Amino acid sequence: MTKALSGRQAQAARNDEVILAAARAVFIADPGAPIAAVAEQAGVGISALYRRYASKEELLRKLCTDGLARYIAESEKALADDRDPWTAFEAFLHALVDADTNSLTQRLAGTFTPTPELFEAAVRAGELNQAVYERTKEHLRPGIVVEDFAMILEQITSIKLGDEARTNQLRHRYLTLVLEAMRRSGEQPGGGPELPGPPPSSGELTDRWRV
């Protein structure tokens, strides 16, 4: 049974959620923004923010740690999904679009020094990604590899138009179109035209996180 938080602890937890939500909004819009912009967005004093996060770098690491944890959770959920592999794969990508973890990947890569724990989480996420791919690959058009997933999600989550609800609606619209393009078709010889250029290598993806 989960122990209930005291009034002070509950308030601290709520404040932390507000700070992290503000940090996501500020740093996705401008990774170079000062930490004072996060305090202003969150409606807290800069001293209160520094009591929770000693530096901008620490705050950036927290955002990415949480993002990776969400990605890992969604990956594990997809692998436990007992529906047919394609249905589970579609649900997995739509859940990742809702989680919006790839917006962090796009904007924060290379802006801070990752910790060994973050690298370990990234390795775990990569292992789960590979497992999802292995489960789904017979339904994917030829030429698609696991490294393509990150690039596809980054393209989808780069869409921003109107308010948050409209942005989310458009992201799911275009993800649906992309999923149709990714799916193997028995009506096209070889599964469709050859894809131009090689996919990104794991090294190319990892190098973006080096400061």
TrEMBL record:
Stretches for region Disordered: 185-211
The keyword Transcription belongs to this UniProt entry's keyword annotation: yes
Domain HTH tetR-type: 13-71
Signal peptide (UniProt feature, chain positions): none
Family annotation (InterPro entries): Homeodomain-like_sf, HTH-type_TetR-like_transc_reg, HTH_TetR, Tet_transcr_reg_TetR-rel_C_sf
One Pfam family matching this protein: TetR_N
GO MF annotation list: DNA-binding transcription factor activity; transcription cis-regulatory region binding
Source organism superkingdom: Bacteria
Keyword Transcription regulation set for record: yes
Keyword tags: DNA-binding, Transcription, Transcription regulation
Gene3D superfamilies reported for this sequence: Tetracycline Repressor, domain 2
Residues within the DNA-binding region(s): 34-53
Protein name: TetR/AcrR family transcriptional regulator
Organism field: Kribbella albertanoniae
